[in-house]
Amino acid sequence: MNQTARSNRYHIGIFGRRNAGKSSLINLITGQETSIVSDVAGTTTDTVWKNIELPGVGAAVIADTAGYDDCGELGEKRVERTRQSAARIDLALLLLDGSPKDATFEKEWMKLFSSLNIPVIPLLAKSDTPENLALKDAWEQLLDAKILPVSSKTGEGKEKLLARMAEIYVTGDNISDITHTLVKSGDTVVLVMPQDAQAPQGRLIQPQVQTLRNLLDKHCLALCCALEELPQMLGSLKCAPSLIITDSQIFPQVAKLAPKESRLTSFSILMARHKGDIDTFRNGAKILQNMPTDGRILIAEACSHIPQNEDIGRVKLPRLLRNKLGENINIDIVSGNDFPDDLTPYNLIIHCGACMFTRRHVLTRIRQAKAQNVPITNYGIAIATLTGISENVSY
Question: Is the full-model pTM beyond 0.85?
Fold first, then answer.
């Protein structure tokens, strides 16, 4: 169960006021004591993530968040963490407890989920108590939504909740085919995977692993090599491979060696479609053709790693940008969950392949950029554009 990368799991978040029973609910769903349960409000001080297999959904991760009614300076920071968690989830469980007379928070969060295009299942907490169950109709009228009663104490409503989650998952936007229509069963695919200082010793990076698994699932003939062995690999084949997938940073070198009959793409471009919006990314890269010489670019990395020599996001990509656009170009770099609320100072955002992020998380950032009229693209597409080979790349 724990072998599936968290970035490839269906993300479910539990939201509600302090002491509404969020931790008890997550324990009910997971069938174990995942979160600490206490009568003291504010026990959950940071988001707790738990991997789980759910019927009809498969590999999922459930987030137990701090109460969105927390107060004080520290409480405000906890609520901000909860807001950040909302950007990462595919489904929100909104736990309602008490009287709907003051539903300011619930209305605010329903509005937030709507703006992020996140489906919500409102749940009536502690439905085993007559006083709470009697509030169901009032909550439904106030939120204009169907409320599902659930009791963490008796287990009432659990099966209906699981069925509803599976229903939403099946009808949702879940893209699992990384290589899309670029290959079919029986095709020969060459993966060019440089093992430089950025590659973790003894293992492959996530995009390589995920792409390789996708090719095996599609019954393709997958062949792997480093750049130095690519000529030998191509020379050993009777026919040109249907597709060559390369690391973005060696795009130009591989393009020179690739047979004309072979399609060419990169792991980052595959991730651009798998995790984001390929058309938006392609349109965003066009600004690189007429970027102001003193323009400002934001490079966004999904993972928070210690930069190595020749780091692609912090060294190689900035070098390419300055070689193409001039030394006066301004470049800012953020990593992990750090992402500016105000993107308007930037002429362009260049995002990594986001193998460590969920698709929902990337789409939230794309939506934010669009709302502020700031173009956004992806490492692989940007590098293909900067090196002049974008017309020869398959998307």
Answer: no
